[in-house]
Amino acid sequence: MDTLSDTAIEGKDPDFDAWLSQQLQFHEPYLDNDGFCEQVMEQLPAPSRRSERRAARFQYGAVVAASAIVAWQFPFDRVWMEALQQSISLYSLVGVGILSSLAAMTGGILAARR
Prior knowledge:
The structure is a single chain. By secondary structure, the protein is mainly alpha-helical. The protein has six helices and no strands. The protein has helices at residues 6-9, 14-23, 36-43, 49-73, 76-86, 90-113. The chain starts with 5 loop residues before the first helix and ends with a helix.
């Protein structure tokens, strides 16, 4: 198997550019399916409210699980000591962290539901 040279990786190799454009060409003919895919999609059942709620619960559960893993790995003891040394209100730091985390998670869930 050929290895890529540094010039190919940097995008300065004309031979690589020619090879890549040749590989990206599709020479297969288009197969018309006479609307078969659309017919199959129309026959599929519409998602129920129950399945949408189940999906939402799984999303919330995944967010809670990911947050628990992050909290488990977070070095709270070092942050606590640094905050005490810097004389920063720990409650304000924790509050800002929690609020920003909740905002990010909520944004992710809303983006996933659209």
